[in-house]
Specification:
Elements (H helix, E strand, L loop, with lengths): L9 H12 L2 E6 L4 E5 L7 H9 L4 H7 L6 E4 L19 E10 L2 E11 L5 H41 L3 H14 L8 H7 L1
Antiparallel strand pairs: 1-2, 1-5, 3-4, 4-5
Protein name: GTP-sensing pleiotropic transcriptional regulator CodY
Organism: Bacillus cereus
Keywords: DNA-binding, Transcription, Transcription regulation
């Protein structure tokens, strides 16, 4: 309740889910970036540690998650979608993974991955997971909308500035951009003026 009206912090949300359902929680973007995560059961594995340090899931795994279009619960360690390191299958034989797609505006925005040892994910856990994925989806859409608004404002400011120029100022700007041959660079205005 204290976060009302503020952007959702994916890390805090992951921590809360981790405490409530007692599982490792990973909020993964479409491109495999870890937006937030919380660890309930430490997994001693170098690849997992590196993944968490880089905040990036493997691309192949991320792409495979798109094959799951609805919540898939209690996948065992032999599943291609397991969140446990496959090279240590014997250690995590009781590992269970639940995959919850994050969908917003009719498109796949990411995936919520839950993992724990021994205890199956029950209906209460799945309801909370699906609710959380909806919140994450809405938040990702809100962030996208803010980016679009910011870009539109920037374009409007540039358009206003250009429309306020006199004909000769506009002509000078055109010559400057022709000299730049791109979006940035170094030039001397007096040299351009001599050529025009």
């Amino acid at each position: 309740q204290s976060a009302a009206g503020k952007p959702v912090n994916f890390r805090e949300m992951s921590d809360t889910m981790c405490e409530v359902i007692e599982a490792n929680v990973f909020v993964v973007s479409r491109r495999g970036k870890l937006l937030g995560y919380a660890i309930h059961q430490q997994i001693e594995n170098e690849r997992m540690k590196q993944m968490l340090a880089e905040r990036q899931f493997p691309e192949e795994y991320t792409q495979s998650l798109f094959n799951i279009t609805e919540t898939s619960s209690n996948l065992d360690v032999n599943s291609a979608y397991t969140a446990f390191p496959v090279e240590n299958r014997e250690l995590f034989g009781q590992g269970l993974t639940t995959i919850v797609p994050i969908v917003g505006g009719g498109e796949r925005l990411g995936t919520l991955v839950l993992a724990r040892l021994g205890q199956e994910f029950l209906d209460d856990d799945l309801i909370l997971a699906e609710y959380s994925s909806t919140v994450v989806g809405m938040e990702i859409l809100r962030e996208k909308a803010e980016e679009i608004e910011e870009e539109a404002r920037s374009k409007a400011v540039v358009q206003m500035a250009i429309s306020s120029l006199s004909y000769s100022e506009l002509e000078a700007i055109e010559h400057i951009f022709e000299e730049l041959n791109g979006t940035e660079g170094l030039l001397v205005a007096s040299k351009i003026a001599d050529r025009v």
